[in-house]
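For this section, I looked closely at a protein sequence along with its fold in token form, which I now present.
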Amino acid sequence: MFKEINGLPGHVLIVHAVVVFVPLLALLASAYGLLPRWRSRFGWAVAALAVVAPIATFLATESGEAFEEVQRTRGVAGEFLQKIREHSEYGDTLLWFTLGLAVAALVLLAVTWNTPWAARLPSWLSWLVTGVVLVLSVFALVYVYLTGDSGAQLVWSGQV
């Protein structure tokens, strides 16, 4: 799945969406929680990113596994294969943090929406969910960095 796109390894193209959408989700969801006055201006973007970022991350991990399999069939082994495995593990962890962040962002949208149902909720709940969003945002950003850096080191080492 997603082994190649127009002759290029699919993973190399798809990761760019992750590098853009996951940090945007982290930043906008955090801002949405911390800046109540601005919620009406970018709530729609948080909702869209909460759907798109996990999908992009999932596609990146799937295409990465296909790329890893291609490298194995080429006979890549040893330390380089271990670095690919480390990169893959960072990507898998990033997927889980991105999924958690997306769910937390959607819950935050739900508890702050202008509906009679949300109005009956305790006011501290939105701050609690904002705290969860902030923590997950930090982890997602750290793992975007770790995953991207380990992948870039593989590419620029000249072995891929």
Summary: Residues 32 and 43 are 7 Å apart (CA to CA). The mean pLDDT is 90.
